[in-house]
Amino acid sequence: MPSVFPWAKFRKAKGAIKMHCLYNHSGALPSFMTFTDGKRHEVTAVKETSFPLSPDSIVSVDKAYIDYTWLYSLHTQKIWFVTRAKSTIDYAVAGQHPISVRGIIRDERISLQGQSTRNKYPQDLRLIKFYDDERQKTLVFLTNNFRLAATTIAQIYKSRWQIELFFKWIKQNLKINRSSEPARMPS
Q: Rounded to two decimals, what is the model's pTM?
């Protein structure tokens, strides 16, 4: 791969490319893509790229994209986000939403308490603790959307899995040669 993509050096004899996608759920295809070398962290790439997002868009990202400065920039652009909360999140509960649906354990309005994080994201956030019966796993979501039902927030994050299936398809079907020859599309 290094000879095919010389800018994607990763190790001495190995290259790596990361593809960052804006996935349009209605069309089930990426609507925007950018590529970086494998060493670039996800949140660095997203901060350096102008993804075409309009107000009222909903962005669902995994925990690797948690950067409170970037999330707050989405908030100030009136863009909604849904992500998984890190287990180390330092917060205080500022209020609670009523819980009336099976699977929702907590639905709280929170404020970040860490000195650095509070400065980077000064507004309240919503923290939803959800038990997924299918996976038998408890998930904790973080969002700036206080309007949608907690189960809808959980479904939005669950739909993020479609991008993972897209990446899996790429890895299985677009064979990238390690030689200097360009990769060929399967017939």
A: 0.73
